[in-house]
Design a protein that fits this description.
heterodimer, A: alpha/beta, Rossmann fold, 8-stranded mixed β-sheet, 4-stranded antiparallel β-sheet, 30% helix, 24% strand, B: mainly alpha, MetI-like fold, 2 domains, 0% strand, globular
Chain lengths: 333, 318
């Protein structure tokens, strides 16, 4: 049984201009202790998917349909229909979350120690001293310098990278089974990015936590994930184990993404390859296969009229393309 | 210090250049048959220092103030310091009670509005507060006077029409305090209701701003319940702008409300200020101006100090 299974999730925003389905029928599953990467361009719905799992999508966004099943001692609980009180137990208790903006994600008026300890108090009946000890332990685990002193400091006294370490400590202090990391390194310097990613994988090994890593950076995915799901225009277009996806991408979009990565040592005179066109906006998705206006392999009229279904082309490798496996694609490995 | 100097200098210049002097006011009120002859008027002008140009008089006033002398009231024939001393108690009691009441009601109201934002009951309360806010104090005061002092006369609900104390109360201090409290109910109500809408609206809108911040989402993701998110995480952050407001309301504590004190003939600073302007009583006007200016500056200092307490990003040395 997977730890978390998302089935046909639809999250839409009801704006004055009409219904905007940011997530449109996403299905995913994560096993215990594994890392799943969710990749896509800005605006494809990956962050909304992440927020939907903990029902943190704020108005006017609503989860319209679908199930989010969390394994719970042999049975499962559906987070979409869970009561407020139970939901609070899952948030931070069984599923921790790390956000993109470390600069603004910590409350400026409380000390770091209070903020981490609060997470402990919310989920476990422990004494203040014990909660403090646990916070200290977590700060050591995320390799903060002078952890004792940090407990009494405020967020503004820390750099972005250090704040993100505190966020990680806070998300992990209750030993959740799953951590959702929504672009945890996007706002950080490249060197800090590497440190934070290292830290995440080290902590995962230590605590055997599963991670849902949301990113637009394929390099990050290649280094840290066991499995990858590629998202485009509110839907998953391809899902496969990491090695398989990079060596044998089957969806034209994934092929384009991998080809668009800069390769070290490549001649500078050769321009980077790009995918033509723009990410479609959720209020105006194209008909048929949503990628067809930008697809080099699109065949008309089928791709324009008939929506593609996600199908398993080889065991464990799912693709949403009418011609998956039949395309004559130059392989880059 | 420089601020105080500039304020008093400007106010002195303006009051001295208002048409009329303390003497014209007194002369206008006296019996024409007992009119003073021009030589006497000149003598009186000299006695009060009104013969000198205003900038020279200002320097004399400033010199006395530096030595701790606020001067004597022209119309009331009493030292200004004594006058202020008499009036400060009643005003402090009235506006202190009103301010305390406003804040203790406005904070729960604002939080309640944030917790139930958009619900029908929140809208109803919001509308009621807005109606109250836009209702002028003098109209409300007159209505309350009619209801409680006229219509309810003779019932247990009757409240005194004006003044601070009545005749024929018992001798014990407890009776006196109870009597003053009874007199204060209407003025306090009038002074509170308008500010209530304003403050609770301010708290509500600040809270709306704060709950959109990323750290509120973090608190929710940690598993904090809706009430903890609002009252613990969000409210601590709304305290920061509230402190500014508190600092700004400090001078109001002593300056009192001219309108409310006038309607209820409450012997406070607001009325003293109003009357001293009407009587062109320069020393009293200046004494009060100086006091209010000092309080405004003190309020700002207090706000700055409170900032350090509620916002860890601000520290005393920076």
């Amino acid at each position: 049984m997977p730890l978390l299974e998302i089935k046909n999730l639809v999250t839409a925003f009801h704006t004055p201009a009409g219904r905007v389905p940011a997530v449109d029928g996403v299905s995913l599953s994560i096993n215990r202790g594994t890392t799943l990467g969710l990749v896509g361009e800005s605006g494809c719905g990956k962050s909304v998917t992440a927020l939907s799992i903990l029902r943190l999508v704020s108005a006017p966004g609503v989860i319209e349909s679908g199930e989010i099943l969390l394994e719970n001692g042999g049975s499962t609980q559906n987070l979409v229909t869970l009561g407020e009180r139970e939901l609070c137990r899952v948030r931070g208790g069984r599923i921790g979350m790390i956000f993109q903006e470390p600069m603004t994600s910590l409350n400026p008026v409380f000390t770091l120690g209070d903020q981490i300890a609060e997470a402990v108090h919310l989920h476990e009946k422990v004494s203040r001293a014990e909660a403090r000890l646990r916070s200290l332990e977590m700060l050591k685990l995320v390799r903060m310098a002078d952890p004792e002193q940090r407990l009494h400091e405020y967020p503004h006294q820390l750099s972005g990278g250090m704040r993100q370490r505190v966020m990680i400590a806070m998300a992990l202090v209750c030993r959740p089974d799953l951590v959702i990391a929504d672009e945890p390194t996007t706002a950080l310097d490249v060197t800090i990015q590497a440190q934070i990613l290292d830290l995440l994988s080290a902590v995962r090994k230590r605590l055997s936590t599963a991670i849902l890593l949301i990113t637009h950076d394929l390099g990050v995915v290649a280094e840290t994930c066991d499995e990858v799901a590629v998202m485009y225009a509110g839907k998953i277009v391809e899902r496969a184990p990491t090695a398989e996806l990079f060596s044998r991408p089957l969806h034209p979009y994934t092929i384009g993404l991998i080809a668009a990565r800069p390769t070290p040592g490549a001649s500078r005179s050769v321009p980077l390859r790009t995918i033509p066109g723009m990410v479609p906006l959720p209020n105006n998705f194209p008909s048929g296969c949503r990628f067809h206006p930008r697809c080099a392999y699109a065949q008309f009229p089928r791709c324009q009229t008939e929506p593609a279904e996600l199908r398993e082309v080889t065991p464990g490798h799912f693709v949403r393309c009418h011609f998956a496996g039949e395309l004559d694609v130059p392989q880059n490995h | 210090m420089l601020t105080l100097f500039v304020i008093t200098w400007i106010v002195y210049g303006l009051t001295r250049n208002m048409p009329g002097t303390p003497l014209t006011v007194t002369l206008g009120e006296t019996d024409p048959s007992r009119k003073l002859n021009p030589a006497d008027i000149e003598r009186m002008k000299k006695a009060y220092g009104l013969d000198k140009p205003w900038y020279e008089a200002y320097c004399i006033w400033l010199g006395n103030v530096v030595q701790g002398d606020l001067g004597r009231s022209i119309s009331r024939k009493q030292p200004v310091a004594t006058l202020i001393g008499e009036r400060i108690g009643p005003t402090l009691a009235l506006s202190g009670a009103a301010l305390l009441l406003t804040w203790t009601l406005a904070i729960p109201l604002g939080l309640y509005a944030s917790a139930r934002s958009g619900s029908p009951d929140e809208r109803a309360v919001g509308l009621l507060l807005f109606v109250l806010y836009s209702f002028p104090t003098f109209v409300a005061a007159l209505f309350l006077q009619i209801i409680f002092a006229v219509w309810l006369r003779g019932t247990a609900w009757e409240l005194p029409l004006f003044g601070m104390s009545g005749d024929g109360v018992g001798t014990g201090w407890w009776h006196r305090v109870a009597d003053i409290a009874r007199h204060a109910i209407l003025p306090i109500t009038v002074q509170t209701y308008g500010g209530l809408a304003w403050y609770s609206r301010f708290i509500h809108s600040t809270m709306e701003e704060v709950v959109r911040q990323d750290y509120i989402r973090t608190a929710r993701a940690k598993g904090a319940g809706e009430y903890r998110v609002l009252f613990h995480h969000a409210f601590r952050n709304t305290l920061i702008p509230l402190v500014t407001l508190l600092g700004l309301s400090l001078p109001g504590l002593l300056s009192g409300s001219v309108i409310v004190e006038q309607i209820f003939t409450w012997p406070g600073m607001g009325r003293l200020f109003f009357e001293s302007i009407r009587e062109r009583d320069y020393p009293t006007i200046m004494g009060l101006t100086l006091l209010f200016s000092v309080l405004t500056l003190a309020g700002q200092l207090l706000a700055d100090l409170l900032y350090c307490m509620v916002d860890p990003r601000v520290s005393v040395d920076s």
